[in-house]
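Lab notebook, bench 4. The sequencing result for the construct came back, and we need a structural model before the next group meeting so we can plan mutations. Quick request posted to the team channel:

Model the 3D structure of this chain.
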Amino acid sequence: MSIQPVLMATRQQLVTVAWSGLILFFLGLALKQWWGVPEPGFMWVNSWGRQTPELWACLTQLGDTSVVFALLAPVLCRHPRIYLAWLAAVPVGGAVSFVLKRGLDWPRPPDVMALDQLNVVGLVLNGRSFPSGHAITAVAVAMMVALHLPVPHAWRRPVQLGLLSLALGVLLSRLAVGAHWPTDVLAGAGVGLLSAVVAATVLHKMDVRPPEWAIWLAWALLGGTSLALADRVLDNEPGQAVLALAALSIWLSFLRAVWLRVR
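Done. Here's the predicted structure in token form:
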């Protein structure tokens, strides 16, 4: 069973993903104007977090940009071109999220509901609800990995379905921990798909072997990220298992990268 070379998304695939992203974003925006609060389905999903709060905390950490790229550090060892293309999508999704959150400043669930009516896991977040940044990251990364990560051909479809399921879990977790409304994650998913298209475009234009300075800069950023993740673990932030695993992923991947160079 041979490993396939780096997958390159076709133009038709990218057009489909881009249109899907636009539809999801504007659907979330339209429903936000139509629905009142609490939005339909929110209280039902939010109640799930009462039974297994640590599970939902771990899932929601998988939408944190620093955590996700730490967990994907092994890709930087073997496929730096793919990893750097993925990193290029981060400023796009981040910029869209920054502008919309501060421009609209729509309320989060704790802003309009009493805390005794709401299940909150972790910090109580206020304001700047739309769109969900965690949803942007989760969907963008899931789509980017599904489009580009070389895996054995027989595993490709199961891996893609697994990524879709994991991204859906992250979206639901933002409701379960009391951080976002359904429309926030719907629009965030749309922006995430558009970010994935940006990453695919960068990958198409990038040289086969990126410059050494870019690779070492990525490792430097990951080194700083590992220290920040360790600090969050020491602060007993919910979802510690994922945070610790992400920090460990960086250091093990770095050691492997060094070994691959000196062997």
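The chain has one domain: 11-262.
Will bring this to the meeting.
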